[in-house]
Amino acid sequence: MSTPTNNKKARPDNLLFHSHIEICRILQMLAHERSHIEAAVGEHLSFKAFMLALDLPHARFTTTFSPNKEANSALLNSPDAVEFTATDSQGLLYSFAASSPEETQIDGQPAIHFSLPKALLLHNRREHARFTTSDDLSLRCVADATGFMPFESRITDVSHDGLGVLIYDLDIHLELGSVLKGSRIITPNGDAVIADLELRHITSAQLPDGTTANRAGFRFIQPPSEIAQLIGLFIQNMDKK
Asked: Cα–Cα distance between 4 and 159 in angstroms, integer?
């Protein structure tokens, strides 16, 4: 997986990412740089550590322990998600909430696993802007609308480079490389974006309600002009609000 391109001057002050693809890229970059990460925990305690790794198969990231043993204990016993702030090599700030801390080891050294965040805020102002996470965003999609087998599905992610994630029923069987022609992606205002989607990988996934569905990564073939509108739903420029 490639790391995100950093261009400090080109970035707005605050970008809120709901895109899982983009969040993973940012966390991987922070781990590659062994970036500093910190959070307020317990009563007046500060957990200060470094990013170590991103574990995509298990949907988690890993940090070192803090030198402060009390902070480590408070974090590991916290029943709630903890809000972290990380700083990259350019001095940009990233805020995200993470939960489910679990002690582990990497190369024989103690470390802590956390579940991946559902949202991440990039902000390059001095103050730490706060944000609230909403329910997982998804878009209704009539996949293969002009093909041989139209079917209902949901799109749960769209990234800057035209990649996305499609969720659909287990009784629908598709092959890698399949092209879903003229798929109709319905935006929250009711407009439809028409695009051909090429399937790149297919797995099964458990949904928040406990049911299981197919999960397919796709790319847009000749991305439609409305791709920016779709990206904007998953990556919001908060300075425009």
From this structure: 11
pTM: 0.84
pLDDT tens digit sequence for 15-49: 999 999 999 999 999 999 999 999 999 778 999 99
Query: What is the residue whose two structure tokens read 């990234």?
Result: 159
DSSP string over 164-186: EEEEE-TT----TT-EEEEEEEE
Alpha-carbon span 167 to 37, nearest angstrom: 33
With H, G, I as helix, E, B as strand and everything else as coil, classify residue 65: coil
Q: Return the bridge partners of 48, or none.
A: 38
How many CB atoms sit inside 10 A of residue 139's CB?
19
Are 84 and 96 within 8 A, CB to CB? yes
Q: Could you give the domains of the chain?
A: 8-123 (2.30.110.10), 139-239 (2.40.10.220)
Strands 36-41 and 45-55: antiparallel
Pairing relationship of beta strands 235-237 and 14-17 according to DSSP bridges? antiparallel
Burial class (CB in 10 A: 0-12, 13-18, 19+), 104: middle
Buried-state track 178-194, b at ≥16 Cβ within 10 A, e below 16: bebbebbbeeeeeeebe
How far apart are the C-alpha atoms of 112 and 47, rounded to whole Å? Answer: 12
Tokens 């470094």 belong to 50
Over residues 65-83, the mean pLDDT reads 93
Calculate the alpha carbon distances from 46 to 39, 42, 98, 174 in Å: 6, 8, 15, 49
Residue type, 134: S
